[in-house]
Amino acid sequence: MATIQFLGATGTVTGSKYVVETGGSRAMIDCGLFQGMKELRERNWAKLPLNPASIGWVILTHAHIDHTGYLPRLVKDGFTGPVYCTPSTADLLEIMLPDSARIQEEDAEYANRKGFSKHRPALPLYNEADARAALRQIRSVEFDTDLRLSKFLSARFVPAGHILGSSFVEMTITERGRAAVKVIFSGDLGRYDEPILNDPARAEETDYLLVESTYGNRLHDQTDPKDRLAEIINATAERGGKLIIPAFAVGRTQLLVYYLRELEDEGRIPVLPVAVDSPMGVSATKLYMKHKGEHDLDMQRFERVKRNALATKNFSLVQGRNGSKALDEQSGSSIIISASGMATGGRVVHHLAQFLPNPANTVLFVGFQAAGTRGRRLLNGEGEIKIHGQLIPVRAAIESIGSLSAHADANEIMRWLAGFRRPPKKTFIIHGEPDAAQALRDRVEKELGWNAVIPTYQEIVELE
To answer: Is 239 left (phi over 0), alpha (psi -120 to 50) or beta?
Structure first.
């Protein structure tokens, strides 16, 4: 009998990993890093409860690190099989996995140099060579194309509208002497009627469903995000301050630039220097312009008139550390968009250390901030924050815009679920903090009448 084991994204929004076992073979769907609280991050260092060499295939829903960032470690520990994903995801991973490795190497080197790590020496979970080795195992598969893994397993990628290349995965299990069983892994669901990418595709039937619940207990602010963005930019510019936006390099960064360009076109904000300061963000922005087949009608309209919808009037894609450091010396108001989105690492952390003490500046969060992250602590109003072993006073204005999230909110998740023609035998609520998962489970049971459960870490479930 086929089973699913839940190795991540249970009780948390990070570390997505699920292993399907049938006919003596194993497939892992997503291979993410745990992020946020220390107890979660420590799971990245713990041995998996199964031998990585026993996994035949890895299938990735999309490129975000909480769904892919453990892959180099999995390969380092013995996984040798192919890694399947969409072509856009494959392109993004070429920049994201080495970038993830470099951040870890740099953070370990900095910790050793400054002496603030408890470990002697501090080590990265994996290095850039490990990331490059993992990339050699990636194979791209187009959307809506049947992928035959074995005589027991097949899969298909269907557009999820979350970021470039994102999909939900339909897996079919055909055991000897049993009726075929379909399982859908939602990955991260995107939103409806948003710019740049097409809406999530409809899913019509499955026997088992794993659905994310990041915003399972919340609705996005219905305020036009451009109105709030304009208000924050104008207030910061009047103070002569800098606007620092921690943003995920893939998806959120491009959406921000799209809205900034629109606000400039409409004359609602001053034309300020706008810098994307993230190696991954720079490369991802270029990839968004390359993969035009995933663009919605608004983006296609700009392409017809040969105008870049993802650039403002005074726009720069920052190259190298020296370019990043130069931003800190730049006089006058400006906008810096930098990863990581939860301020857990990357170049944005250095900008926060530089600009948080100045009350003229603003730090704007534009996405979900997981428990235990620096972003969540800043939003919770902490008066000082530890960065690289030093306490930095928080005097800058701390703002947030909830409506810029690339995740479906509770109503949008329910809208997607309403597209199923029949209830799944069982729906697993995953990829959400406990309150969010519980709230979504309750709605699914009450409004749809489905059998919904919240799995636990490392739980194994039989698929009847």
So the answer is: alpha
